[in-house]
UniProtKB/TrEMBL annotation, chain A:
<dbReference type="InterPro" id="IPR000883">
    <property type="entry name" value="Cyt_C_Oxase_1"/>
</dbReference>
<feature type="transmembrane region" description="Helical">
    <location>
        <begin position="308"/>
        <end position="333"/>
    </location>
</feature>
<dbReference type="GO" id="GO:0009060">
    <property type="term" value="P:aerobic respiration"/>
</dbReference>
<feature type="transmembrane region" description="Helical">
    <location>
        <begin position="103"/>
        <end position="123"/>
    </location>
</feature>
<keyword id="KW-1133">Transmembrane helix</keyword>
<feature type="transmembrane region" description="Helical">
    <location>
        <begin position="578"/>
        <end position="596"/>
    </location>
</feature>
<feature type="transmembrane region" description="Helical">
    <location>
        <begin position="554"/>
        <end position="572"/>
    </location>
</feature>
From TrEMBL, chain B:
<keyword id="KW-0249">Electron transport</keyword>
<dbReference type="GO" id="GO:0005507">
    <property type="term" value="F:copper ion binding"/>
</dbReference>
<dbReference type="Pfam" id="PF00116">
    <property type="entry name" value="COX2"/>
</dbReference>
<dbReference type="GO" id="GO:0004129">
    <property type="term" value="F:cytochrome-c oxidase activity"/>
</dbReference>
<feature type="transmembrane region" description="Helical">
    <location>
        <begin position="90"/>
        <end position="113"/>
    </location>
</feature>
<feature type="domain" description="Cytochrome oxidase subunit II transmembrane region profile">
    <location>
        <begin position="23"/>
        <end position="121"/>
    </location>
</feature>
<dbReference type="GO" id="GO:0042773">
    <property type="term" value="P:ATP synthesis coupled electron transport"/>
</dbReference>
UniProtKB/TrEMBL annotation, chain C:
<dbReference type="GO" id="GO:0019646">
    <property type="term" value="P:aerobic electron transport chain"/>
</dbReference>
<feature type="transmembrane region" description="Helical">
    <location>
        <begin position="184"/>
        <end position="204"/>
    </location>
</feature>
<keyword id="KW-0472">Membrane</keyword>
<dbReference type="GO" id="GO:0005886">
    <property type="term" value="C:plasma membrane"/>
</dbReference>
<keyword id="KW-1003">Cell membrane</keyword>
<dbReference type="InterPro" id="IPR000298">
    <property type="entry name" value="Cyt_c_oxidase-like_su3"/>
</dbReference>
<feature type="transmembrane region" description="Helical">
    <location>
        <begin position="142"/>
        <end position="164"/>
    </location>
</feature>
Length: 617, 354, 207
C-alpha cells in the first residue's frame, strides 16, 4: 500500500490522494492550506480597509465596496481562517498526542474539511458574481434581510455549509478523545492542547446549532418570504441578535482556548518544566467554556434589555476573568525557575502574555455595562477583540506553526526569518490596534466608511494604517519562511525541541498509521517521563499486530460539491426558475453520495504484521 | 462619587490621558471629557477598571520580565533540568481570590450605576422627544409641543430630556459621546433614555449601529441652550407659519413655487406636520451641517438636490423625485436657505463648542 | 475481508451494537449529535415562544389548534418509539426477523404520523389561510413543527435504507450499530415531539 503510493508521484496522483484522503495528518494539512489561503485573503481585505481610513473623507473605495470589505474581512477571518487553521492543527497533532492511530470517523473528518472549503469558496464567489455580503459579519436583521442583491445570500449559504462541516469536526474530536486514547492516557494525563481540543469540541457542538437556526431563519426571510425579522408582520429582529451571540460568544472561546493549549505546550517545552498547576489549567479551561455560554448578551448591552439583564450579564462576564487570570499566572510560574530557550515559537508565546493581558483588561472594561454604553460599536471594541483574537489566536497559530512545523512538514522553520516576521508583526500589531482604543473613546464608531475632517480622528487613523503595513510585511516574511524552509532546509530530526508529549515520540516523518504499537502512557508528559527515567522512548502497550486502516474515498468531496451546487440553486431560485436545476441537482448528488456511503460496506483494510516488520527493516 | 473616585480621576487624568494624548479628541465629540450625566457615569466606570486592570497588567509585566531575565538559558547550564514543579496551592489560591475581590470592586458600582441610569420615574414631567432613526437621518418630534425638527435637536441645559426612540427601517444607535452613552434605535420597540447636559454647547452625535452604505454619514447635533433661550426657540418654532415666511428675493419666491411644483412637500414638511418621509425643513437655514455632514452652503445644497447619491450613497431620496436641473435647484436652495424661524440658533449655545 | 463479523448465537456478544470500536464510536457520536440537535430545537422553541403572539391579525393559537388530531399524532409517535425498543430487544437476542418486523411497524407508525401532519398543515392553509408567510407566528410555527417533521421524514428514509440493505444478510457486528443508532435517533425525535405537543399545542390552547 505505502510503497504503491510512493511510486505514483505524479501531480495527478498527489491530487487524487489528497482529494480522497481520510488520513488525519493530510486533512490537517489541507485545513492549513485552505485556512492559510483565506487568512491571506482576509488580510488583504484588512489592508484595503486600513488604506481607505488612512486619511479623512478618503475615496479609495466606495461606501458599498467598503461595507463588503468589512463584512468579508470579519467573516473570512473568523470562519474561514482562524477556525480551520486551528482545526487543522488539532487534526495534525491531537491524535498523536493522545496516542491514537486516527480520529474516530476518518470519513466524516474528510467530509468536514470539504464542507468548510466549499463553504469558504461559496462565500468568496460572491466577489465574482457582482455583490459580496455587506451587512457586517454579524449580519444584523433587518439590515441583512433588506440588503439588496444576492450578497447576504452567499453569506447565509457559505456559513451554513461550512458550519455543518465544523459541527462534524467537533463531534469527531469528542468521540476520538473519549474512545481512542492510548492505554494509560487518562484524562488527567492528556496534554493541554488535547484538553482544549476536547473542550472546544463541546463548545462547537452546543454553539453551532444556534447559528444554524439563525441562518435558516435569515435564509427563509430572504428567500422564502417568511416574517421572522419583518416588523410589519410581527417579526422581531432582536431574535437574530440573540441567536447569533448565543453562538457568537462561545465562538470566541472556540478560537482562544486552543491557543491557550498551544501556549501551554510551548511554555512547558521551552522552559524544560512541567506546566505549573496542570489541574487548575484543565479546570480553568472547562470553567471558561461553561461561563462562555452564560454571557452572550454582553454583546447587546445597548439593545435596551433593561438594567436587570444588563447587570446579570455584566457580572457573569467579569467572572470569566478569574479562570483566565489563573491561566496567565500559571504560565508565568511555568517560566519561573525554568531553563528558558527563546526561539521563534517562544517569542510568539511570550508576546502573547502582555498582548492578551491587555485584551483581557479591556475585556473587563467592556463587560462593565455602563461604560460599554460608550465603548459599544466603536473602535474601542475593535481594538479589544483584535487584542484578543490577534494577540491570542493569531500569535497562538504562528507559535504553533513554528513548534509543530517539523512534525507536520518535516522541516524546521528558519529562525532568523522567524524572528524578523515576529518583530515586524508584533510592532505592527500594537501600532495598529493600541491607538484604536482612544479612537473609539474619541468618538469613532466602528464600520465607518469615512471619518470626517476636523473631528480629531486623523492622526490615530494614520498611525493605525501604518501599523497594518508592518503586519503585512510580517506575514509576507513568514510566508517566505515557509517556502524557504521547504526548499532550502533539510529534513527535521525527530523530536527537535526535546519535547515532552507523545507527538514527539513517533518517528519522523510520521508513518501513515502513526504508531506501529500503541504506546503505554505512564503519566503526564509521557515522553519526558521516559526520558528522565533513561528509557528515551515509550514502552509499547501491545505486541506488533495487524493495524486496521480506513479506505480513502472521493465521496466526501462529492457530497460537499453537491451541497455547494445546491447552494447556488437556493440563491438564484428567487430570480430564476432555472436555478431549480442546480438546487435539485446538487441536493440529489449529495444525497445519492450519502446513500452510497450508507449502503456500500466499507470495512477498511489491514496492514499486516509482516508488512510492518518488513518496513522496519 | 466625588470622594475617592474623584481623587483617582484627577490622578489618572494628570498621569495618563494628559500625557499620552495631549488632547483626548474634539471636546464636543469625545467620551473622555464628559459634559452630561450619562457620559459622566460611564466615564467613572471607564476610569475605575482602567486603574485596577493597569495594576494587574503591571504585575504581569514585572513577573514576565523578571522571569525572562533570571531564568533564560545561560552559558554553562544548557543541560540544566529544572525542578518539575506541579503547582502551589497557596499561590493558586492567591491569584484566584485577589481577582475575585478586584472584580467585586468593579461589579458593585456597575450594577448601582446601571440601575441609577435606568431610573425613569420623572419621565412624565420632563421634556420628551420622540426620535426616529432613518437611513440616513434623524427625526425629532417634541411631544406635546407640535414641533418637529430633523438632524439638529435643541434642548435646555441642566434639564433631563427624555428621548423615546424608534427606527423606521433598520437598527440604528443614538450616540452623543460627550453627553451620554449610546442606545440602540430598534424597529420593533421604543427605547428610552435621557440626556442631562451640564454645559451649553453643540454636541456631535453619531449613528453607532451599522445601518448601510452611509452609516458613517449619519451625524446629528444636540444643541444645548439655556432654558430661556430654549423657551424662546419653542415659541418661535410654534409661531412659525410657512405661508407667511418673508422671502427677500424674487428667486426665493420662485424657489418656493418650484418646491411645490416638484412636490417636495410629499416627503419634506415645512412647519409642524406629521409628514416625516424625509427630513423636516422648518429651520433648515439654521442647521449646523447639510445632510448632517457637509458645509452648510448654497452650492452644496444645489449639489445635493441635483444628485444626493454623490453625498450620501444609498439614501432614500435618490430617484424618489423627478429630475431637477441645476437652475431650478439653485432657486429651491435659495428658498430653503431662508427658512430660519427663530432667533435662537447654534450661536446661542455658549461655551465655544460649535 | 479477513475479519468476519457475522453473528451466530454462540459468538453473539451481549451488546452487538457496541462490540467493536466502530460501534462504540457510532453510539457515542450519535449521542453527541443529539446534544447538538437539542440546541437546534431549543433555538427553534425559543424563536417560536417569542413570536407565537405575533399573529399580525391572523388566527391565534386558540383558534387554530385542534387537540384531537394532535393527540392521535402523539400516540402514533409514542407507540413507534416503543416498537423500536422491541426491535432493539430482538436485536440483542439475535432474532433478526422479529427485529425487522418491529422496525417495519415503527416505520409504518412514522408514516402515519407524517400523514397526519401533512393533513394538519393542509387544513391550516386551506381553512384558515394560515401560511408560512402570513405572519411571524406562521413562520415560527411551520419552521418548528416542520423541522421536526423533516427529522421524521429523514428517519423514515434512513430506516428503509438500512432495512432493505440488510434484509438478506442478517445481523452482524458491522450493521448492528447502524440499527442501534437509528433507534436512538428515533427516540430523540419522539422526545422532541413531546415538547412540541406541550409547548406548542397544549400551551397554545390554554394560554
Amino acid at each position: 500500500m505505502s510503497s504503491a503510493t510512493a511510486q505514483r508521484n505524479s501531480f495527478a496522483a498527489v491530487l487524487w490522494d489528497y482529494l480522497t484522503t481520510v488520513d488525519h495528518k493530510k486533512i490537517g494539512k489541507l485545513y492549513l492550506y485552505g485556512g492559510g489561503f483565506f487568512f491571506l485573503l482576509g488580510g488583504l481585505e484588512a489592508v484595503i480597509i486600513r488604506i481607505q481610513l488612512i486619511k479623512p473623507e478618503n475615496d479609495f473605495i466606495s461606501a458599498g465596496l467598503y461595507n463588503e470589505m468589512i463584512t468579508m474581512h470579519g467573516t473570512t477571518m473568523i470562519f474561514f481562517a482562524a477556525m480551520p487553521i486551528l482545526l487543522g492543527l488539532m487534526n495534525a497533532v491531537m491524535p498523536l498526542q493522545i496516542g491514537a492511530r486516527d480520529v474516530a470517523f476518518p470519513f466524516v473528518n474528510a467530509l468536514g474539511f470539504w464542507l468548510f472549503l466549499f463553504g469558504g469558496i461559496m462565500l468568496n464567489v460572491s466577489w465574482l458574481t457582482g455583490a459580496a455580503p455587506d451587512a457586517g459579519w454579524t449580519a444584523y436583521a433587518p439590515l441583512s434581510t433588506t440588503s439588496p442583491g444576492h450578497g447576504v445570500d452567499y453569506y447565509v449559504l457559505g456559513l451554513q455549509i461550512s458550519g455543518a462541516g465544523t459541527l462534524m469536526g467537533g463531534i469527531n474530536f469528542l468521540v476520538t478523545i473519549v474512545n481512542m486514547r492510548a492505554p494509560g492516557m487518562t484524562y488527567m494525563r492528556m496534554p493541554l492542547f488535547s484538553w482544549t481540543t476536547f473542550v472546544i469540541s463541546v463548545l462547537i457542538l452546543f454553539a453551532f446549532p444556534a447559528l444554524t437556526v439563525g441562518l435558516f431563519l435569515l435564509m427563509f426571510d430572504r428567500m422564502f418570504d417568511s416574517a421572522f425579522f419583518d416588523v410589519a408582520l410581527g417579526g422581531n429582529s432582536i431574535i437574530w441578535q440573540h441567536l447569533f451571540w448565543i453562538f457568537g460568544h462561545p465562538e470566541v472561546y472556540i478560537l482562544i482556548l486552543p491557543a491557550f493549549g498551544i501556549f501551554s505546550e510551548i511554555f512547558a517545552t521551552f522552559s524544560k518544566k512541567r506546566l505549573f498547576g496542570y489541574t487548575a489549567m484543565v479546570f480553568a479551561t472547562i470553567l471558561i467554556a461553561f461561563l462562555g455560554f452564560m454571557v452572550w448578551a454582553h454583546h447587546m448591552f445597548t439593545v435596551g434589555m433593561g438594567p436587570v439583564a444588563n447587570s446579570i450579564f455584566a457580572v457573569a462576564t467579569m467572572a470569566i476573568a478569574v479562570p483566565t487570570g489563573i491561566k496567565i499566572f500559571n504560565w508565568l510560574l511555568t517560566l519561573w525557575g525554568g531553563n528558558i530557550t527563546i526561539n521563534s515559537a517562544m517569542l510568539w508565546s511570550l508576546a502573547f502574555i502582555p498582548s492578551f493581558t491587555i485584551g483581557g483588561m479591556t475585556g473587563i472594561m467592556v463587560a462593565t455595562s455602563v461604560a460599554d454604553y460608550q465603548y459599544h460599536d466603536t473602535y474601542f471594541v475593535i481594538a479589544h477583540f483584535h487584542y484578543v483574537i490577534v494577540g491570542g489566536v493569531v500569535f497562538g497559530i504562528l507559535a504553533a506553526c513554528h513548534y509543530w512545523w517539523p512534525l507536520m512538514f518535516n522541516r524546521i522553520l528558519n529562525e532568523k526569518l522567524g524572528k524578523w516576521a515576529f518583530w515586524l508583526f508584533f510592532i505592527g500589531f500594537h501600532l495598529t490596534f493600541f491607538i484604536q482604543h482612544f479612537l473609539g473613546l474619541m468618538g469613532m464608531p466602528r464600520r465607518y466608511w469615512v471619518f470626517l475632517e476636523d473631528q480629531g480622528l486623523d492622526l490615530g487613523n494614520f498611525i493605525s494604517t501604518i501599523g497594518a503595513f508592518f503586519m503585512t510585511a510580517g506575514v509576507i516574511v513568514f510566508l517566505y519562511n515557509a517556502f524557504y524552509s521547504w526548499f532550502k532546509q533539510g529534513p527535521a530530526p525527530q523530536d527537535p525541541w526535546d519535547g515532552r508529549t507523545l507527538e514527539w515520540a513517533v518517528e519522523s516523518p510520521t508513518p501513515y498509521y502513526n504508531f506501529k504499537q500503541l504506546p503505554l502512557v505512564r503519566g503526564l508528559d509521557a515522553l519526558w517521563l521516559e526520558k528522565m527515567e533513561g528509557n528515551g522512548k515509550l514502552a509499547p502497550a501491545e505486541p506488533v499486530g495487524d493495524i486496521h486502516m480506513p479506505n480513502g474515498s472521493i465521496l466526501p468531496f462529492l457530497i460537499s460539491l453537491g451541497f455547494f451546487i445546491a447552494g447556488f440553486g437556493f440563491i438564484y431560485q428567487t430570480t430564476s426558475d432555472l436555478a431549480y436545476i442546480l438546487l435539485y441537482g446538487g441536493m440529489g448528488m449529495a444525497l445519492v453520495c450519502m446513500l452510497i456511503r450508507s449502503l456500500k460496506d466499507d470495512h477498511g483494510y489491514h496492514i499486516t504484521k509482516e508488512e510492518l516488520e518488513k518496513e522496519a527493516r | 462619587m466625588k470622594g475617592w473616585m474623584g481623587k483617582i480621576k484627577v490622578l489618572f487624568l494628570m498621569g495618563l490621558v494628559s500625557l499620552v494624548l495631549s488632547a483626548c479628541g474634539k471636546e464636543n465629540l469625545t467620551a473622555l471629557d464628559p459634559k452630561g450625566y450619562g457620559a459622566e457615569k460611564s466615564f467613572d466606570l471607564i476610569i475605575l477598571p482602567t486603574v485596577i486592570m493597569s495594576f494587574v497588567l503591571l504585575i504581569v509585566m514585572v513577573l514576565l520580565t523578571v522571569a525572562l531575565i533570571k531564568f533564560r538559558k545561560k552559558k554553562g547550564r544548557e543541560d540544566f533540568i529544572p525542578k518539575q514543579v506541579e503547582g502551589n496551592h497557596t499561590l493558586e489560591t492567591v491569584w484566584t481570590v485577589i481577582p475575585i475581590l478586584l472584580l467585586i470592586i468593579i461589579a458593585v458600582p456597575t450594577v448601582m450605576y446601571e440601575f441609577n441610569l435606568a431610573d425613569e420615574a420623572d419621565a412624565a414631567d420632563s421634556l420628551n422627544v420622540e426620535v426616529t432613526g432613518n437611513q440616513y437621518w434623524w427625526h425629532f418630534n417634541y411631544e406635546g409641543l407640535d414641533i418637529q425638527t430633523s438632524q439638529d435637536v435643541y434642548i435646555p441645559v441642566g434639564e433631563k430630556v427624555y428621548f423615546n426612540m424608534l427606527s423606521s427601517d433598520v437598527i440604528h444607535s443614538f450616540w452623543v459621546p460627550t453627553l451620554a452613552g449610546k442606545l440602540d434605535v430598534n424597529p420593533e420597540n421604543v427605547n428610552t433614555f435621557y440626556i442631562e447636559a451640564y454645559e451649553e454647547g453643540v454636541y456631535w452625535g453619531k449613528c453607532a449601529e451599522f445601518c448601510g452604505p452611509s452609516h458613517s454619514l449619519m451625524d446629528f447635533k444636540v444643541v444645548v441652550v439655556s432654558q430661556e433661550e430654549f423657551d424662546q426657540w419653542v415659541a418661535d418654532m410654534q409661531n412659525f407659519d410657512p405661508e407667511t415666511v418673508e422671502l427677500d428675493s424674487e428667486v426665493a419666491v420662485e424657489g418656493r413655487e418650484l418646491f411645490d411644483q416638484y412636490n417636495c412637500m410629499a416627503c419634506h414638511a415645512i412647519g409642524s406636520s406629521p409628514v416625516a418621509v424625509g427630513p423636516n425643513l422648518t429651520n433648515f437655514a439654521d442647521r449646523t451641517k447639510l445632510a448632517g455632514v457637509e458645509e452648510m452652503t448654497k452650492d452644496k445644497l444645489v449639489e445635493w438636490i441635483v444628485n444626493p447619491e454623490l453625498i450620501k450613497p444609498g439614501n432614500k431620496m435618490t430617484g424618489a423625485y423627478p429630475k431637477i436641473n441645476e437652475e431650478d435647484a439653485a432657486k429651491i436652495a435659495e428658498y430653503l436657505m431662508q427658512l430660519s424661524p427663530s432667533e435662537i440658533t447654534i450661536e446661542n449655545a455658549d461655551g465655544g463648542l460649535k | 475481508m479477513s475479519h468476519d463479523h457475522s453473528l451466530n448465537p454462540e459468538t453473539m456478544p451481549q451488546h452487538p451494537e457496541k462490540a467493536t470500536l466502530e460501534g462504540k464510536n457510532k453510539f457515542l457520536g450519535l449521542w453527541f449529535f443529539l446534544g447538538g440537535e437539542t440546541v437546534l430545537f431549543a433555538s427553534l422553541f425559543g424563536t417560536y415562544l417569542a413570536l407565537k403572539n405575533s399573529t399580525a391579525g391572523g388566527p391565534t393559537t386558540q383558534e387554530l389548534y385542534g387537540l384531537e388530531l394532535v393527540f392521535v399524532m402523539t400516540m402514533l409517535l409514542l407507540t413507534s418509539s416503543l416498537t423500536s425498543v422491541y426491535a432493539m430487544y430482538h436485536m440483542k437476542n439475535n432474532d433478526f426477523k422479529k427485529m425487522q418486523l418491529w422496525l417495519g411497524i415503527t416505520g409504518l407508525l412514522g408514516i402515519g404520523f407524517l400523514a397526519c401532519e401533512i393533513y394538519e398543515f393542509y387544513h391550516y392553509i386551506h381553512e384558515y389561510g394560515f401560511t408560512f408567510r402570513s405572519s411571524a407566528f406562521g413562520s415560527a410555527f411551520y419552521t418548528l413543527v416542520g423541522f421536526h417533521g423533516g427529522h421524521v421524514l429523514f428517519g423514515l428514509c434512513w430506516l428503509s435504507a438500512i432495512m432493505i440493505r440488510n434484509a438478506k444478510r442478517g445481523l452482524n457486528l458491522y450493521n448492528a450499530p447502524k440499527f442501534n443508532t437509528f433507534s436512538l435517533y428515533w427516540h430523540f425525535i419522539d422526545v422532541v415531539w413531546v415538547f412540541i405537543f406541550t409547548v406548542v399545542y397544549l400551551m397554545g390552547k390554554v394560554a
